[in-house]
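Limitations

Structures in this collection are predictions, not experimental determinations, and the ligand pose is part of the prediction. Treat each record accordingly. The example that follows, with FE2/S2 (inorganic) cluster as the small molecule, is included so readers can see exactly what is and is not provided: the inputs are given verbatim, and the output is the predicted complex.
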Amino acid sequence: MAYYQATKDPTTDIRERTYVPELLHGLAVTIRHFMRNLFFPRDTNTDVLNRTGTSQITTVSYPEEQVTYPPGYRGLHRLVPREDGKPRCVACYLCATICPAQCIHIEAGEYETTDASADSRVIEKYPTSFVIDELRCIVCGLCVEACPKDAIRMDTGRHTPSEYTRSGFVWDIPRLLEGPPVNHPSDPWLKRPGSERPAHAHLEKHARIGEGLVPLKLPRPAHPVRTEVTSGPVPVTKFLRD
Amino acid sequence: MSPKDNKPSSPPPPAAPPAKPAPKNPGFVTLNIDGKEVTAKPGTNLITAAKTVGADIPYYCWHHRLSIAANCRMCLVESSTSPKLVPACQTALQEGMSIRTDTERVAEVRRSVMEFLLLNHPVDCAICDQAGECKLEDYYQRLDHKPSRLEGGKILRNKRKVLGPLVVLDQERCVQCTRCVRFMDEVAKEPQLGMFARGSEEYIDVFPGQQLTSNYSGNVVDLCPVGALLNRDFRFRARSWFLSTVASVCTGCSRGCNTYVDFMGQDVYRYRPRENDAINQSWMCDQGRLSYKPLNLARVQAPSLGRADDRREVTAAEALLRATAQLKAMAGTAELAVLVSPSCSNEDLLAGLTFAKDALGVRHLYVGGRPDGAADALLMRADKNPNRKGLAWVSAGLGLSLEPFAALLKAVQAGTVKALYVLGAEVPVDEAEAARTLAQVEFIAVQATNVTPLTETADVVLPTATHVEDEGSFVQEDGVVQRVRRAFPPRGSTRGHWNWAVDIMREFGFPLTYESARDVFRELSPKVPELASFGWDSEAPPLKTQRGLQPLATGADGRPPGYREFGAPRVRGI
Ligand code: SF4
Ligand code: SF4
Ligand code: SF4
Ligand code: SF4
Ligand code: FES
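Predicted complex:
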């Protein structure tokens, strides 16, 4: 259409009507971009719109360059460790139950009462084997939703790397257990030394007060009480609430 | 009679208690529950009576086979006989009384009771084996559904108190219903459990210096409505919602307690007792409870030929051919003996003994079977074979006489037995010694479920299915015939005893068409008068009472998730 109109337009000159010079002009543009992209350095910024290099290629050469995924992206699973490096997972099988692809296989075991680490004795159940077949996983994230212990997350920001064999996609605890450890104030091992009855069964720190889970209904003055200081050293400010 | 006929002079009679209303249905109590009329036998519990009209009263501490403690207060209902709410479990039925279980007041009280029960409850369902079959969970979902309002700390107790060889206690999870204490006192008659301390510090424990060593300790795990008492054998091995259930019978002794078999894939995970008033009420013994293990462990899975080092696995056809050739040569002679175990089901015995009589031509059988063991007054019997009575019936019906195992050993030592056909490899004496003696026999064909010294010395081993892998029936010590149902297909290349017997008979040239244990029973039981009247189909318990989710045993394509490239996943600890 464009070609037809350009050549029939009586106001344009013979150069345009024969079209050959414009053809050559177009070729020159193409060759210029070709040379520029072929021989000049390319910016590897994965944010392609903000690339500045001479070469204007917008390709992201995965896997050497990897786009940073947005927060909330469901990537490769990880088993969240506790501070002591053991998995938070208590082998409750809820992820395996919910998984629509049936790709999680768990076997549970029991920490011995003689286990050196007290943390382990508080929650006596743990996974002796925890396997995810990443090839079968449909990345739905339901396992993360189902977990009552915040023990499985998909926040690695990576997706499953490629492998040469199917068995390579079967991820077990040593590969899954990674990333920063996580503790919650409600974690049992923060509340008691072991699974036996503590010497004082009613310790203050067992309470949920201060976790922010329960809004406190203590009577409290509407305005902070001011301490009038007339002489002497200024007392260290004590906050009523931390 | 008109009012004016009354004699005014006579004094009024003394105020008598209001006469009881005449029963609407003589011999029964008629009352009204939630606006529906209920007619019940006197002495019926209100909870049971309410169930008949669909009013499901929640309860923890009540159990129809234990005394009434009425301490959980979960079953409170409104009654026309009392201004306050009454515990349904403890309220006697009265003629004309009216009960309401569906009012706002009852709902509010149930919610409050749940809140109190959960006050110090750890709610660690994630690691609690009871999850999925826990009454606290169920009633919370049904009746409460509110977050905890507790601001102080929960009372901490021992979470892992090992009470005995089979039971572990989490004192935090207990709701103080005392079912376990009452069971040990009233049923097991071994009061080993008690309730200690008071108020919110109350906890269950064994009496000082004792252990929960009773042979009935497993029942307190079933009784405990929450996850406080747990079975150490089953704990952490499977989540309850993965298990499928089938009705069966315990084969641990001749009592024949009714059971549920909980299984996943082709592994049995536990037995639970099934109600039967005539035999085991609601209980079973620990010995029987653990007798599921041989169903998973050390099974003979493939037919094999040859003794000791010459042993090689073969196809079923090859094994059958070999057994047939050897047995046929000896058939009808006195040098051929048949050893039969009273642990086999009736169908196995019917087919196996018919084979022995018609094809092998023997006139008497030697009786093997497990040796006698301990017995007690409640359920456990000394005879550890589930079908001795059935063997007696079937052999009598077929005209075969029974001889003790010792006679077989004597005959073997005397050298008069040259070939032996074994239906069930259990022997009532030391297994290794018996196998050494029997090894003198020139040819032994064994149908066996598990690897024993006798299968090691056999020339032909035919792998046999267990009672959970095939339909069948057993006769318990008092002569009650009971059906078992098939939970899952036989493992490996195992087949029922009856199936092997029928297969060899076909090789012998008998035109048999039996395709199932049912066919065998239908065709052969008329020869046994005691079995002839048994309704094989009508007496069978329903096939599936509960179907578990099964995402773990196999994936949708039949391959286990996880290590599917490296073979089947390990089944731990069985
Ligand atoms: S993301 Fe979905 S499919 Fe993948 S393991 Fe989790 S639940 Fe299963
Ligand atoms: S849901 Fe969480 S705690 Fe439970 S088995 Fe899965 S990862 Fe472990
Ligand atoms: S007893 Fe019931 S409510 Fe309590 S932790 Fe166990 S499953 Fe959960
Ligand atoms: S341990 Fe279980 S059965 Fe015993 S009192 Fe506690 S909740 Fe009841
Ligand atoms: S069941 Fe009635 S009070 Fe517990």
